[in-house]
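Reviewer 2 asked us to include a model.

Predict the structure of this chain.
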Amino acid sequence: MSQKPSILVVDDESGILDTLRILLRNEGFEVATAQGGRAGLEQIRTGTHDIILSDVRMPGVGGLDILAAAKEQDPMTPVILMTAQADLRSAIDALNLGAYYYIQKPFSNDDLVAIVRRASEYRAVRVENKQLKQEIRRRERNGNVERPIGKSKRFTELLRLAEHIAPTDSTVLIQGESGTGKEVVARYLHNLSSRAEGPFMSINCGALPENLLESELFGHVKGSFTGAVRDKQGLFAAARGGTFFLDEVGEMPPSLQVKLLRVLQEREVIPVGATEAIPVDVRIIAATNRDLEEEIRRGNFRSDLFYRLNVIALDLPPLRERRDDLLLLIESFLNQLGSESDSPPKALSSEALDAVMVYDWPGNVRELENALEHAVVLSRGNLIDASALPVRITTRRKEPLVAERSYRNPALEVIERAYIMWVLQAEGGNKTRAAEVLGIDPSTLYRKLSRYEEQQVAEA
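Predicted model (structure tokens):
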């Protein structure tokens, strides 16, 4: 027989507690009661409850305090708040802080029971989802973690290093241009680590103003600034037992760099307005698209923080240096887009493929993914024509890849280059067929053509 769902009822009136205890027990719930907010906080800290039903207005410790404590103890616990006063402001605050439902007294027994039953079902679904995710993570840790896509030499060497360091708790600094997939690699490290069943928290350090970023990172105590109506747990504390990914750490203001350095050195944080430190158990992975050593020389980044972050460095190559990975990435993104629209994946025409393979991709993997989505949406059939690609990819300066000059004693590379261009011309510019005639992989041909073009520009 399944265990009865448990509910904690908190109210400062004993008569209401008795009534609700009898009502909910008769409906099949295991009921605990607490008279007053302080007694409710004690029960939350010392016990576990599937649902919490609390009055809002109580002397000393109110319903919003009960809500905050319950969410800190177990974010999956639905909290139902009730009040005798039609207070729209407190209702909005309660819902914004994560309350499951806000019910006004007087209410009918049937209405309350229906809300409590829905809350019980809601929690059961969330618990089941969490268990499924944990099972998926366990399977991934047993060798089924999906590897980031790529076979080029530099990228596979980077993945091998990532796989070697993943089981450790060492701090990692991932460097690379915007759009190269730094967060993908960070998640790969997390999923391979002993912390895989813990949370993966991330924040973009350049996306928030300094005061908000500080509160998000370290948390704050009630009353520490205007609008701080309750204690707030910071992301360092929320990531306990897991991994915290600091994206674009080079954008962090100098005042917060000092506080981050303390976290790395002392493994503790001090929330805004607090006087006592809170220990943190988290692995830190930072990422940046800036040259931090240059930022140090300019006085924008602390050298001591850089050395604390740069325990192990992973340098992600830009997509233009991963030509061998383009076909794999294209296939993966087109399959993904087809799956999302519940339709067969589309394919690039030879002209579209040519344009994609010779483009430099300054926005890297992110730009490639967005360009393919653009093309899939605009193309009518299953074959994507070059005209469906963004204009910037198809309007490129065209120049002969081989200069018209004679060589008295040509080097082997010059002969190879001339032969490749002769085959390409004989096949009408179709690179896929030319690769077949040459007996090489299409990605190899695209890489050689790209190198020839770079040499042409250098010689000009």
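Residues 109-144 form the longest helix (36 residues). Residues 76 and 123 are 6 Å apart (CA to CA). We have added this to the supplementary material.
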